[in-house]
């Protein structure tokens, strides 16, 4: 599975996420250069904390997959979080993900829809 299937950076401080990946019990590590040509692995308290630290911001904004639990599962399966960010706040996404696109709109994110087939 690709990361962009469950999470995409869509604005300076904003991510589209499938709720299951930002649960507090999900383990997360960061990899940074160790200064000797290798990598240093650090376990983070949460994915959200790792994002905030990496971006140097106090709080990230998360837009979760839309709808109730069943709708969120369906839209996740239909790549609701797999959008292409053209510039901060403007994404290309699938028109079929009605609930998630509505949440983007309410959050001020512009969605350029890919029509249904």
Automatic annotation (TrEMBL):
The keyword Manganese is assigned to this record: no
Enzyme Commission number(s) from the entry: 3.5.3.6
KW Hydrolase (keyword) present: yes
One Pfam family, short name: ADI
Catalytic activity of the protein: L-arginine + H2O = L-citrulline + NH4(+)
UniProt enzyme class: hydrolase
A molecular function (GO) term: arginine deiminase activity
InterPro entries the record matches: Arg_deiminase
GO biological process, one term: L-arginine deiminase pathway
Sequence similarity: Belongs to the arginine deiminase family.
Protein name: arginine deiminase
Species per Swiss-Prot/TrEMBL record: Salmonella enterica I
